[in-house]
Specification:
Layout: H1 2-53, H2 57-60, E1 63-69, E2 72-79, E3 86-96, E4 99-110, E5 120-122, E6 125-128, E7 133-135, E8 138-140, E9 144-146, E10 149-150, E11 154-156, H3 165-172, E12 182-184, E13 194-196, E14 199-200, E15 205-208, E16 211-215, E17 219-221, E18 225-227, E19 231-234, E20 238-242, E21 246-248, E22 253-255, E23 258-262, E24 266-268, E25 271-272, E26 280-284, E27 288-291, E28 297-303, E29 306-309, E30 314-316, E31 331-339
Length: 340
């Protein structure tokens, strides 16, 4: 019996030892791959942080970096080669020359609040008169009185990322003063426009004269702004900001891209630069936007109280320009995440 048991044990021990060795190697591989995955995922998180801090800069200069984590070498790249604010992040964690784990992730980065993607946004009511055509989404918190045509979605929901007056005032404030209560731009032409800004007024401001002006920086009005007929203004990706109201009267001309923002009410009735699909934000932070441009409008309209669209307006959504001159509110949305 002893000899028989000895013979049987010699047959059993070798397979048991092989099984133990295989199990040990299996768990080593699992542990290595797990640590590589954690390290590569940390590389993705690092890239997201960097892109969030400087999304515009990394559009022209791809992110390339490396670091060591969990005894793994992590190489990270982020490339803006797909357009539409989408970045491709590649993070590879390497244990040695024979083992590595790679994560590829596509991320959609938005530089501005979500309401920039709407044609119209209101934290109150929206009134759309007959004959008005809106090519884009409409979001509101109050009531929608629609007698026009909306090709996008109508969304009754709270508006996220609505700015406060303090936030915008601090962002747009310009220390340099502009003297006087009126500016005559009659000497300006399209080829050689009258230059305005950057600067602030000490009260109300009227812009008048038959000519063309161009913003060189933010025009901050510590009161109300009135733009008289005959005046043409090129925003040049800059902002007109008024602490009270803005009145752009019929017969004025406006070229985007840029922002027109009033704390109070905004009367917006200019002719818009023909043949241009440049984004313009027209906003009333605490008041009403009354909107009737004289031709097609590209951009977004936002009002805290309500938005009143007069008859025969045509509003088209378009992507905001990267250098629009609005407080950056970066949001990142992961589209895909693949581990190889």
């Amino acid at each position: 019996m002893a000899l028989i048991l000895l013979a049987l044990s010699s047959l059993i021990v070798i397979p048991i030892l092989n099984l133990a060795g295989t199990s040990l190697n299996y768990h080593r591989v699992i542990q290595r791959n797990t640590l590589e995955t954690y390290a590569a995922d940390s590389g993705v998180e690092y890239a997201l942080c960097e892109l969030g801090n400087d999304p515009v800069g990394y559009q022209s200069n791809p992110l390339e970096d490396s670091f060591t984590l969990n005894d793994k070498t992590v190489n990270v790249t982020a490339e803006y080669d797909l357009g539409n604010d989408i970045f491709k992040i590649t993070s590879t964690a390497t244990t040695d020359g024979n083992s590595s784990t790679t994560i590829e992730s596509y991320v959609d980065i938005s530089l501005y609040p979500a309401f920039f993607n709407n044609a119209i946004t209101s934290r109150g009511d929206i009134t759309i008169r007959p004959g008005t055509v809106i090519d884009g989404d409409v979001q509101y918190e109050g009531e929608l009185d629609n007698k026009g045509t909306i090709t996008g979605d109508t969304i009754q929901a709270p508006v996220a990322d609505w700015p406060t007056v303090e936030e915008l005032s601090q962002f747009y404030w310009v220390g340099e003063a502009i003297s006087g209560s009126s500016i005559d731009i009659s000497s300006g032409t399209e080829a050689a426009p009258y230059l305005i800004g950057p600067g602030h007024t000490s009260g109300n401001l009227t812009i008048k004269g038959s000519g063309v002006a161009a913003l060189e920086g933010t025009l901050y009005v510590q009161g109300s702004l009135t733009v008289k007929p005959g005046v043409g203004i090129k925003l040049n990706e800059k902002t007109i900001y008024a602490e009270v109201d803005i009145d752009m009267q019929p017969g004025t001309d406006l070229w985007g891209p840029g922002c027109v923002i009033a704390v109070g009410d905004t009367q917006f009735q200019p002719n818009l630069g023909t043949g241009e699909e440049a984004f313009i934000l027209v906003m009333s932070v605490e008041g009403t936007v009354t909107f009737q441009p004289q031709n097609d409008f590209y951009g977004s309209i936002a009002g805290n109280v309500n938005v009143d669209l007069q008859p025969n307006c045509t509003i088209n959504t378009t992507d905001p320009d990267d250098g629009l001159g609005y407080p950056i509110c970066t949001t990142l949305e992961t589209i895909s995440y693949n581990i190889n």
